[in-house]
UniProtKB/TrEMBL annotation:
It comes from the Bacteria. Residues 39-165 form the Nudix hydrolase domain. Keywords: Hydrolase. GO terms for molecular function: hydrolase activity. It comes from Rubrivivax benzoatilyticus. InterPro entries: NUDIX_hydrolase-like_dom_sf, NUDIX_hydrolase_CS, NUDIX_hydrolase_dom, Nudix_N. This is NUDIX hydrolase. Its cofactor is Mg(2+). The lineage of its organism: Bacteria, Pseudomonadati, Pseudomonadota, Betaproteobacteria, Burkholderiales. The keyword Manganese does not apply.
């Protein structure tokens, strides 16, 4: 079960906060002991792409923790002020330096234990010139049989790639939703 982040101080006034169930609510929330501000803790959104060139998928070798040195799809945290699609394009540029045409939403995976929701979009690469940013050791294209399955950083990436190649083999892409426990 997911343990929420513990808020100790009010974000509005800085005074101590305590957890209790507010009136007309059903969940424990952090409530300021001074001003009464209620602080809600919600899942973090991770956005990314499945960038494709012909029969190959672009992966990035992580240069940061967690899971430094392992492979992932280009993805990261959604920023305030951007849509999931905008965030996915930004992350693809930041991590791989890849130019893409964004396609349809492909997977929505709830990572309940981490308090995250991962959104991956299909994407078509414009070319094979990559300029990885500081969070990436290298960006490289892989055919299905070349994928480093045992060196993938995250279960959401493994599941998204598994679904991608299954849909490609069927000749039809769908939106997939699921839970990673």
């Amino acid at each position: 079960m997911f343990e929420p982040r513990r808020i100790r101080h009010c974000r509005a006034c800085g005074q101590p906060a305590r957890y209790e169930v507010p009136a007309e609510d059903t969940r424990e929330r952090a409530i300021c002991t001074a001003c009464g501000e209620i602080h809600y803790e919600n899942p973090i959104n991770v956005v990314g792409t499945v960038p494709v060139w012909s029969d190959q998928v672009l992966l990035c070798r992580r240069n940061i923790e967690p899971r430094r040195g392992l492979w992932t799809l280009p993805a990261g945290f959604l920023e305030l002020g951007e849509s999931t699609a905008e965030g996915a394009m930004r992350e693809t540029d930041e991590e791989a330096g890849a130019r893409i045409e964004l396609g349809a939403l492909f997977t929505v995976l709830n990572v309940v234990s981490a308090g995250q929701v991962h959104f991956f979009y299909l994407a078509r690469l414009h070319d094979t010139r990559f300029a990885p940013g500081p969070e990436t050791i290298e960006a490289r294209l892989f055919r299905e049989h070349e994928l480093p399955w045992d060196e993938l950083a995250f279960r959401t990436v493994r599941e998204t790639l598994r679904l991608y190649f299954a849909d490609r083999a069927r000749g039809r892409f769908e939106v997939h939703a699921g839970d990673i426990r």
